[in-house]
Automatic annotation (TrEMBL):
Protein name, as recorded: Sugar phosphate phosphatase
Pfam families: ARMT1-like_dom
Protein function: Metal-dependent phosphatase that shows phosphatase activity against several substrates, including fructose-1-phosphate and fructose-6-phosphate. Its preference for fructose-1-phosphate, a strong glycating agent that causes DNA damage rather than a canonical yeast metabolite, suggests a damage-control function in hexose phosphate metabolism. Has also been shown to have O-methyltransferase activity that methylates glutamate residues of target proteins to form gamma-glutamyl methyl ester residues. Possibly methylates PCNA, suggesting it is involved in the DNA damage response.
Family the UniProt entry places it in: Belongs to the damage-control phosphatase family. Sugar phosphate phosphatase III subfamily.
UniProt record, GO biological process: DNA damage response; methylation
Keyword Transcription regulation: no
Organism for this UniProt entry: Panagrolaimus superbus
Catalyzed reactions: beta-D-fructose 6-phosphate = dihydroxyacetone + D-glyceraldehyde 3-phosphate; L-glutamyl-[protein] + S-adenosyl-L-methionine = [protein]-L-glutamate 5-O-methyl ester + S-adenosyl-L-homocysteine; beta-D-fructose 1-phosphate + H2O = D-fructose + phosphate
Domain Damage-control phosphatase ARMT1-like metal-binding as annotated: residue spans: 20-397
Gene3D superfamilies: 1.20.930.60, Uncharacterised protein PF01937, DUF89, domain 3 (3.40.50.10880)
InterPro entries named in the record: ARMT-1-like_metal-bd_sf (IPR036075), ARMT1 (IPR039763), ARMT1-like_metal-bd (IPR002791)
Amino acid sequence: SSVVAEPLIGATPNSFAYKTIKERWPKIVTKVIDELHRSYHPAVNTHGQEYGDDINSIIAKISETRYRMETNKPLLDFEGKTEDEKQWNIHLNEMLEMAGEANFTWYNLPWLFVECYLYAKLHEFCTSTKHMKDYDLFKVEKTKAFFDSKAQIQALSVELIDWEKDRNVDEKMVLTRLLQIDLWGNKCDLSLSCGDAHEQIHDMFQKLDQFAPMILVNDIEIAVEHIMTKCKGKDFHIVLDNAGLELFTDFALAEFIIDRKLAKNVIFHGKDYPWFVSDVTEGDYKWVLNSLENDEKEQVKILGKRWKNRPEFIFKHEPFWTTGYSFWDIKDKNEKLFNELKSAGLVLLKGDLCYRKLVGDRSWPIQTPFKFALQTCTIPVFVLRTLKAETVAGLSENAVKTVREKYGADDLTWMVTSDYAVAQLNIP
Ligand code: F6P
Ligand code: MG
């Protein structure tokens, strides 16, 4: 595997990476600054002036970061006060060695690394304050997104309770549908949609069959077989993506797997700190369960209460998930985590960032065999992803024909709209 495609970088003209750095990241960080002003303006905050000093410190650092990304400056080191920041400084040095001084900038470094760096920096701005060390800059957006999805959550809850009552329901049909729902729940990413994708989500789960052709590689049937027969007595891992509705669909899938005794536990892997706007932190995990338990709808309350008290539901947050490393490096960077995942019944990876880390965010020819794109990552993976970045591997002739007929050879917009999806399984 010496021949490896080039990493995606922002400097590539007309690329989605370029558009993201030029337009979307400034929009994301500006939204954070506005939110900070709105919720804790020094003049009105009830925490006294020192809170205002923290706010001003974070705003000043975000503004400088926005200036540096817009003018393609070199990345700055971390203060290095925490273990996470020390690890990030090691990675920065590795990237400086690899890229050289001239390319050690926002647009010229691998886009995957730079986007992870941005969120690690936003976290550092909080941890280096006096009173806002655990502040979640995206809490307001995640909370709003959850309430925007309430109708969908309530409708799904009724369906889930109905399936439970009907004990001779076809298990394979239910598991297939839960995986489809879990896949499309991934459209709820706030770093792409910035919160305005929710109208697409409504009634989507009632029209799953209509969305089936948008799944370009669909290993769901093989995955159902694997989950029904190969996970007994082993742990089923879910590397979570977004909070809110997507997390609800993860819980629904996990409950079925435990309820039908298809695996021993479900290990939910969240993030150590706020990440890519909508990714699940421990705070989000607990907040969503409490919100479900206190919902006005009976069925939602039942599910929330049960999920909150299930001993087989185990939440973890390893530092690895908030690094800039791809999954090719997981064995070197966290051997314990690698061994845990290697011995899993299955590791379900959710979303676009996970996918990018699986395939090294390379500009693969889209028919590159998925197994080849996984390179040294030898854990048993099943990835459910709506496409939001310009990297994909493992497409069949047919799938290529589908997109080429509609978009032509050079137009990659189909890869970043989250309208298309892949469900790809690789059991080493
Ligand atoms: O481009 C949009 C983006 O920020 C990608 O860079 C990133 O991989 C994706 O959104 C995150 O989406 P998800 O929440 O599905 O991982
Ligand atoms: Mg996400």
